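Here is one chain, start to finish.
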Amino acid sequence: MTSKITPVFQYSDTAEILHATASDPVLCTISRQGVATLTLNRPDKANAFDDQLIAAIRHYLQQLASRAEVSALVLRAEGKHFSAGADLRWMKAMARKKRHDNLNDAQALAWLMNELDTFPHPTIAVVQGSAFGGALGLICCCDIALGSQDARFSLSEVKLGLIPATIAPYVCRTIGQRQARRLMLTAETVDADTARQLGILHEICDSNDKNTADSASLFDEMLQQTLDRLLANSPAAMAQVKTLCKLCEQRPIDTDLIRQTSEMIADIRVSPQGQEGLNAFFDKRHPSWVTNNTAGQGDHNE
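Its structure:
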């Protein structure tokens, strides 16, 4: 399946448009449901990274992280490919500059990965076509990754005499060091099914439909189903889940971790959303964070 993926939220669903023009390198919208969408918008360059695209993503991530109405973030790309990785003309220009300039440039990308990885709300990567180099880092920083059947992945830096340095912590965490060594050393390209086996993708849109419009529609339907599940959940609890997972990843299971996790559940039980969620369950009603658009959607254990 090869298709141009269009945004799941049309303008009638958009509450706010944050980008200046439709030709900006990154487009940013917030839907009426509070779902922010960042769209890489350099389709003529296969959405390759350069300093302007990196700066734009960072700007929006920092802005969206503090917006109270934002409940989730979708990262996707315009055109045939998610991203071909670094813009080679930009990389060639950087190679002519001093080490200090290259260090500042690399740190900008490293902080982009960190800001996406620590974004306080659920994040979903929607991937089609090529996702090479740094693009794979973006995907590994997201909480959930959905892919089309035609998605392809590669850590091809060594072919150019380079290494995937700033994205390596997130790739190694996602697929494990042994698999990361193989992909980083061979620079091989893997398909969507292999990416799912490795843990890069969570779901694949298994459409073999030759009608690209229908294929894109099925892909958007899969994304919307995932968003429906997220929007049925407590925003505060989901933010704490992200904190909890990072805590469990970084700490040994010792008395300090036992204490911290016990404090976390005790605190959230008496929090406003914890109280509201429990009361709504026993009252057999939807909690206050469930909007009319998501009422009745998602799983509800009764």
